[in-house]
User: Fold ornithine decarboxylase from Mycena rosella.
Amino acid sequence: ASHLPSITDENIFPSLPPLLHGHSDVHLRNGIMNAFTLAANHEPDAERAFFVGDLSQVYQQHLRWQACLPHIQPFYAVKCNPDPYVLRLLAALGTGFDCASNGEISQVLALGVDPSRIIFANPCKAVSFVRNAGKMGVDMMTFDNADELYKIARAHPNAQLVVRILTDDTKSLCALGIKFGAPLVTVPGLLAKAKELNLNVVGVSFHVGSGCYDPSVYTDAVKRARTAFDMGTEAGYQFSLLDVGGGFEDALFEQAASFLTDAIASYFPDRSGIRIIAEPGRFYVSKAFRLAANIIARRAPLTEVPRDEAAAPAESDQPAVMYYINDGVYGAFNCILFDHQTAHPYVLSMNGSFHVASSEALNNSSVWGPTCDSIDCVCTSTQLPSALRVGDWLGFDNMGAYTVCAASQFNGFELSKVIYTTGGLGASEVRSALARFAVEGHGL
Ligand code: PLP
Assistant:
């Protein structure tokens, strides 16, 4: 991590004067203004799409977590967005980390985080990864099948194991139960096998699915975890860890927290000796990142020019204009394909101006990514000003979760870079958290 520069307005925008107001809106504008300047000098980077990552937003989410779930320690799911500044901030704020691979474990450990703050929460791991986790001092890991137990017995016999149970994931955008989670009926057999192999099972985890839109499912999940705890006692273990997974949606967070708190109170009335953790990903970062993309091309849809030249042009309700932007589903918008998201573009700047009159005439439009593949469609139909032209900028909110981390460079397009801001509410806390982290000597 020592190669990361510290975050100051000056080094985030080396080519711009120091920012007076640090809010992410200002950074979006400045990013675009910077592009205009580069364009005037015919610089190739002028049109490049970019993210604005608002670290104060991440901090705000952490405050929300602490206010609603003070007794549940968050282990941020690194896979969701392994941005180095996000990880550094969360490390400074004292969260734990849910890692899916050796790569993520190394990234977190390089920040100076103690291995006890990591859970290797992938129930199906390569033996070499299990062994490596052991060497790195990462002991906490999940399993949901007997083969995993044999692997762990060989490669990291002192691991602290967490049995991942299957719960109802039907109320989530991304169901995970088809791939992971031991049905309760299989748990006694797995625990017996773990005992036979002399392994230490310390608790239970579940995941209700990512992007959970009905947080009442946490109630049943905690109930099942209770049953699994009792199975642990039957098998001769004394469980001390409950991991309530991820799935937290920004808009439903307070509701989810309340279902969880109530369920824990009913099913774990005596919480002494039980540590409760969670693995939130999306909740922490989704809102914190916005994307600015440049309109690089514009054309009429094909239907207006019939392929059979003799036929009359078909009347259709298809979009009247197709806009092509410089990030797409092979890049940041992979979230449309993998994470079942919908993109909602809005105009950031038009004809060099940031003021778009509400009286602008609108056209039904579609928005496409830059590659030569026709699956690369960001938005099939949306209302955009008819005066929108090549060179104008579109904005997209909520682009922090499962976006850049899964982006490819298909067709040779580079990944969109991040401009950071610590500007919104909590800016000074963010800066001092990062500074404190540096002072504690974590190699920053
Ligand atoms: N934990 C595990 C094991 C996961 O697989 C995931 C997401 O896939 C998460 C946590 C994070 O979930 P979310 O982003 O919905 O909070």
Observations:
- Residues 217-234 form the longest helix (18 residues).
- The domain at 9-54+286-421 is CATH 2.40.37.10 (Lyase, Ornithine Decarboxylase; Chain A, domain 1).
